[in-house]
Amino acid sequence: MDMELLLDRYPGIPWLREKARRRIPHFAWEFLESGTGLEALIDRNRAALDAVRLVPRFTQGAIRPDLATNLFGRTWSAPFGIAPIGLTGFMWPGGELLLAAAARRQGIPFCASTFACETIEAIGKAAKGHAWFQLYTLADDTMERDLIARARDAGMSVLVVTLDVPVASTRERQRAAGIRDGASGRGRMLQALMRPSWALATLRRGRPRFRIFDKYARSVMEAGTRFLADQRVGEIGAGKLQRLRDAWKGPMIVKGVLDAGDARACVRIGVDGIVVSNHGGRQFDAAPAAIEALPSVAEAVAGKATVLFDSGVRTGLDIARALALGADFVLCGRAFIYGICAAGEAGGELVAHMLTADLRNNMIQAGAAGVPDLRRRLAR
Fold first, then answer.
1. Candidate list 26, 130, 279, 353, residue with the active-site label
2. Fold type of domain 3-376
3. Listed residue (351, 352, 340) closest to 23, CA to CA
4. Highest mean pLDDT pick, 205-209, 237-241, 351-355
5. Could you confirm whether 130 is annotated as catalytic?
6. Can you give the pTM of this predicted structure?
7. Domain range list for the chain
8. I need a labelling partner for 59 at 20 to 30 A (CA). Which of 79, 102, 180, 370 fits?
């Protein structure tokens, strides 16, 4: 569909969000949207982003922002990419492949999750050099090393190691919606039947599962949450990070850092990038808003590692705010899921287009031709 016609239907991310909510089953929506505890951190992320003020200047003449961004020796079309989201194919069947293809067409990176519903090889083929791989560490070292080798062989250029899930969080809304291993029944079936587009797409694609692990499980059914619960090790020490650093020969990022001391420790190990993130408010409800932690982490690793930002990003203006506070690059997750759930195959590109246009517009509004100008526009 023509992009302008899509924008007439969905002028912004909130319109995609509302259509996605009405198009996918309640249990899939709860998996996407829920946080943990009282979900105060989700609101805190939003409020803290809204509180970042940029003071515009209007005497600069014509502003033509250049959004091309060099990251790890490669130029991307914009300073943002698609964050890893586990079980994307649960929220929209084939979702990882749709987003990988959208990233390829838009010239941005797509980060595939260990808990994807597609294989590493299929995602790599769809992305054609535009994919990164996000790793949750495993108890089985042989399996873990094989995952890393598969990612490398599939053309995934960056390894992203997630730190901020030492244990699974208590996600009350997900449990209430029946999202736990072995939970099924009439309620979920009725919810699926009430969303015929999702149900038909699921029938065509097959029941969502962790296809990445089909190679290692004794059966398709075993490659599920119980299998991974026995394998995943979330508590990561410096020794483990060092072994991963030694095993991966390309750029390596750690994701989920909020503390400057943790950031410095990661730099000492030799990581190339730090993602300032609170896991989108899904892990620890007492954590600070990620945007509040960004400046101290950026200052701690200045010149020693690339700084990326994640958590709560919904607009191009949010991206501008993160860049102004010290990020070199931004990852966005839920907005891209809204896109594919609402608009299908065109949804990923539509969200990338929205974010790019909004970022460029707001940089012009602020009188900022580039990131250094944005940083000078911060209200003090």
1. 279
2. TIM Barrel (3.20.20)
3. 340
4. 351-355
5. no
6. 0.95
7. 3-376
8. 79
